[in-house]
Amino acid sequence: MPPPPADPSPKSLAILEAASRVFLAHGFSAATTDMIQREAKVSKATMYACFPTKEALFAAVIERQCAGTHQAVSAIAVVPGNLAKTLTDIGLAYLRIVLSPEGLALLRVIVADAPRFPDLARRFHLAGPRVIIGMLAERLGQAAQAGEVNVQAVGIDAAAALFISLVRGEGQLECLMHPESHPSAEQLDRWVRLAVTTFMAAFGTPGRGTQAPASPVMA
C-alpha cells in the first residue's frame, strides 16, 4: 500500500478532508470513491492522481488523524522532578483526542472493518497507539534515569503501554457503549488522575516524582 503524501497539496488536503467526513459517517466498506469525489468537488482523475485506491486514501486519513494526536502529546514538556504532573498533562492531551467525536468515530470504523481489512487496522495501531506509547516510553526513560520511577519489573515499553491503557480504558469504553455520552472536563480530569495515581503507586519512587499536580485549566 503506497504511503500518503508527506506534504499534501491543497487539492490532496481537500480530498483528505472530504474523505474523513465520508469515512467517519459511513464506514470504510460503505463509503465509495464517488461519494468522496462529490464531497471534495474534484474530478475522478484528480482524486486518483493523488490517491490511487480507496485503501490508500483511508490510510492517508488514518495518518492525518494520528498526526494530530502525536503533535498534541509531543508538545507536552517534561516537568523535572514531578513525573505525576508530566503524566497528567500527557494523559489529558491524549484523552481529549481519543474521546473526541472524530477519535471515537475513527476507532469504530477501524474495528468494524478490521476482519476484512487487517492491514488498515494494523496501520492504525502502529501509527496511533504504538507511536504514543513510544513517546511516553522516552519520557519514562528520562524519569527512570532521574530516579523518579522504577519500572524494571515490567520494562519501560510495557509500563508506558500500561499507563496509556489506564488512561484510555474506562472512558473510551463508556463513550463507545453510550454514543450520546459527552464526558465533561471534570470527568476527563478524574479518569486521568486515577490513572496517574495508580501508576505512581505501582512504579513511583517514594519521595520522588509523586507530587500531586495542580488541577489543570480546561480548554
From TrEMBL:
Q: Does the keyword Cell division apply?
A: no
UniProt keywords, alphabetically: DNA-binding
DNA-binding region positions on the chain: 32-51
Tell me the PROSITE patterns matching this sequence. Answer: HTH_TETR_2
- Gene Ontology terms for molecular function: DNA-binding transcription factor activity; transcription cis-regulatory region binding
Say which domain of life the source belongs to.
Bacteria
| Pfam families recorded | TetR_C_7, TetR_N
Give residue ranges for domain HTH tetR-type: 9-69
What protein am I looking at? TetR family transcriptional regulator
Q: Which organism is it from?
A: Comamonas serinivorans
